[in-house]
Amino acid sequence: MITDCPPGLTFLLNGHLYIVIACTKDPPEEILLVNLSSKRSDSDMTVIFQPGDHDFITRESIVRYSDARIFPKEKLIQRIISRDFELRRPFDATKLTRIQTGLLASPFTPKDKKEFYLMATKK
After folding, report:
1. Does 57 fall in a domain?
2. Binning pLDDT at 50, 70 and 90, where does residue 26 land?
3. Rounded distance, CA 35 to CA 102, Å?
4. For residue 2, is it within any domain?
5. Is the pTM of this model over 0.70?
C-alpha cells in the first residue's frame, strides 16, 4: 500500500512517464510533477534521456518542463491505489537531480512551477 509520493517516484498516465520532483511538507501537501516525451526538433533540450536510462525509455526523450504540474498528494495516492496511474520504477538520485536542476534552468518552465520547487525544497 502506497502512503507517500517521494521525489523520484514515477507512474504512467496517458502513455507518458510522470516523475515526482518535489513535495511540500506542510498542508496542503502538494507535489510537483514533470513528464517525459519523445524528443523532436522543437523540443526543450534542457534534459535529454537515452534508451536504457529508465526501463520505460525506448527512444531519446526530453523532460517537458512546460507541462510541469502541481498535484494534491492525497489525490495522487488515491489514483495510484485505484490503479488509474500505473507505478513504475523510481528514478535514481543522480537522474532525479538532473531533472530538478533542469526545471530551474529551462526557459520553458512556468515561473509558478519554479517558485513552487524552490519553496518545496528550501531547507
Report:
1. yes
2. confident
3. 13
4. no
5. yes
Measured CA angle at 104 (ends 101, 108), to 5 deg: 120
Number of independent structural domains in the chain: 1
Q: Is residue 4 part of a domain?
A: no
CATH number at residue 116: 2.30.30
Contact between 31 and 4 under an 8 Å Cβ cutoff? The reply is: no
The per-residue pLDDT for range 53-103, each reduced to its tens digit, is 999 999 999 999 999 999 999 999 999 889 889 999 999 999 999 999 999
61 within some domain: yes
Question: SS3 sequence, 59-120?
Answer: CCEEECHHHCEEEEHHHHHHHHHCCCCEEECCCCHHHHHHHHHHHHHCCCCCHHHHHHHHHH
